[in-house]
Specification:
Blueprint lengths: L1 H25 L12 H9 L3 E11 L3 H10 L5 E14 L3 E4 L1 H4 L4 E6 L2 E11 L4 E6 L26 E6 L7 E12 L1 H4 L8 E4 L11 E3 L5 E8 L9 E5 H11 L2 H5 L1 E2 L2 E3 L8 E4 L4 H4 L7 E5 L7 H11 L4 E8 L2 E8 L1 E2 H4 L2 H8 L1 E5 L2 H6 L8 E6 L4 H4 L7 E5 L7 H9 L6 E7 L2 E5 L2 E5 L2 E7 L2
Antiparallel strand pairs: 1-2, 1-4, 2-3, 3-6, 4-5, 5-6, 7-8, 7-10, 8-9, 9-12, 10-11, 11-12, 13-19, 14-15, 16-17, 17-18, 20-21, 21-22, 22-23, 23-26, 24-25
Helix pairs in contact: 11-14
Length: about 475
């Protein structure tokens, strides 16, 4: 009797198990439970709308020697042949600001950006050849003035795991949106590691496929955050799976120095705000700058500016630039978990950083070297700044600097204009040394006539 009961129970359990399996196979899998939609797929879905294809066009002269003769002697116009290049970019602000590589858009007459199925014209706002980063702005027509673009998020600086899965997105060979997958092979690939000049140290290395046209596209983690901007691929014979990306920390630092009132509209704000952070966070403040006089401190988070809540670094900088000089701009910052109301007023750079500031602190009367002044002093180029006069009893006189010398370097910086030179001098504390690189044009008598020499010296000058 017991065996019969046991046999029936086993039969019932078998039928129950079969029924459960049948139900499991007959019930469709819900979209949210689809095992194919793993972390990789979700990251791509999140990021791809903000990845753009960039097409540039430049018209360059191409002529043979016969065309050159016709042009020089008969006024014949040589043919203009269009040259095209392709690249990628990422939208970092919903107003249409795009980050890409500087080499993708350098020297191009026309820039087209494809977002989804739509193509827009764009302009380069700023660029940095050293870091190889450029910021573009998509041009919207009147009907698109309220259009918002999908913006992407930066990962935190140095938030990287060696060996973590990464994805490279872009426009390889102009084929359109493409995704490749790999791992983070190195978090800090220096020039010495590859035995060649990469142009920047501390690039990220990945074995995710990066091909021509991927430049400017994002390298992302599985959270859909940008950890780098694709820049190059190692092409040595036999090399495989060696691609490089500019780390997002370097991208952020470059943008924080490029898209600021000082570079866009020659307005002095004097504080560096971290790109990619929300709310915008102040990283550093120059002494005696408008930001310092307003009471802004490093670590302050910008909650409100000119009655607006900035959604990031780009919008914050735009509001500052649009305000212009002289206007009192209200700011609300968060400091130590408390809010504080401040007011800042920007000033024109040339109103503060000028030759008078240099003269006041060093005793040097400088002018930018010109072709005429270079010819007068027998100098072969327009590099540096000519010393016109030296104040008596000044630091410059005590350092034995005399008129006719040329100031080439200031603290190992080589400024392009007096504004940049004055900013370097301004940063020095009273009594601290300023390292000057001086060129002394000299003429000596040689066997065949006058011989010109241009020795360089380094002099420490005590700033007053």
């Amino acid at each position: 009797m017991t065996k019969t009961v046991t046999r029936r129970i086993l039969i019932l359990n078998g039928w129950a198990l079969a029924l459960i399996l049948l139900l499991c196979y007959s019930i469709p899998v819900q979209a949210g439970d689809d095992i194919r939609r793993d972390a990789t797929v979700r990251a791509v879905e999140r990021v791809l709308p903000g990845v753009v294809n960039i097409f540039t066009r430049n018209r360059s002269q191409s002529e043979d020697r016969y065309e050159r003769i016709l042009r020089e002697y008969f006024g014949y116009q040589t043919r203009q042949k269009p040259y095209y290049s392709r690249g990628s970019g990422v939208i970092i602000d919903d107003e249409g600001f795009v980050v890409t590589n500087e080499h993708v858009v350098r020297g191009q007459n026309e820039i087209l950006v494809k977002v989804g199925d739509e193509v827009y014209q764009a302009v380069k706002v700023v660029g940095d050849r050293i870091v190889d980063i450029a910021l573009l702005k998509i041009i919207r027509n009147r009907d698109q003035s309220n259009q918002k673009f999908p913006e992407l998020d930066f990962a935190e600086d140095d938030d990287l795991y060696l060996g973590e899965t990464v994805l490279a997105l872009g426009n390889p060979y102009g084929l359109g949106a493409s995704v490749s997958k790999g791992i983070l092979s190195s978090k800090k690939r220096n020039e010495a590691d590859t035995g060649r000049q990469l142009g920047i140290s501390d690039w990220l290395q990945t074995d995710a496929a990066i091909n021509p046209g991927n430049s400017g596209g994002p390298l992302i983690n599985l959270n859909g955050e940008i950890i780098g901007i694709n820049v190059a691929v190692y092409r040595e014979e036999g090399a495989q799976g060696i691609g490089f990306a500019i780390p997002i920390k370097a991208v952020s630092e470059a943008l924080s120095e490029l898209f600021i009132p000082e570079t866009i509209d020659s307005l002095w704000f004097g504080a560096q705000v971290k790109a990619g952070s929300f709310p915008p966070k102040v990283q550093s403040v120059e002494p005696d700058s408008p930001a310092a006089l307003a009471g802004i401190l490093p670590g302050d988070e910008i909650i409100r500016i000119d009655q607006q809540v900035p959604n990031g670094f780009i919008e914050f900088s735009k509001i500052l630039i649009q305000a212009g000089d002289g206007k009192r701009i209200p700011l609300q910052v968060r400091r130590d978990q408390k809010t504080k109301d401040l007011t800042v007023r920007l000033i024109k750079l040339e109103d503060f950083f000028n030759a008078k500031l240099i003269q006041r602190r060093t005793g040097l009367h400088l002018i930018k070297m010109t072709t005429d002044s270079a010819r007068t002093y027998g100098y072969p180029s327009t590099e540096g700044f000519l010393v016109e006069e030296v104040d008596a009893e000044s630091p410059a006189q005590k350092a034995d600097i005399v008129p006719g010398m040329v100031m080439a370097g200031f603290d190992k910086r080589y400024p392009a204009d007096l504004i940049e030179a004055a900013k370097t001098v301004h940063r020095k504390d009273k009594g601290s040394p300023l390292l000057l690189e001086i060129i002394v044009p000299t003429r000596t008598r040689g066997f065949f006539g006058a011989v010109y020499k241009y020795p360089r010296f380094q002099v420490d000058l005590e700033v007053r």
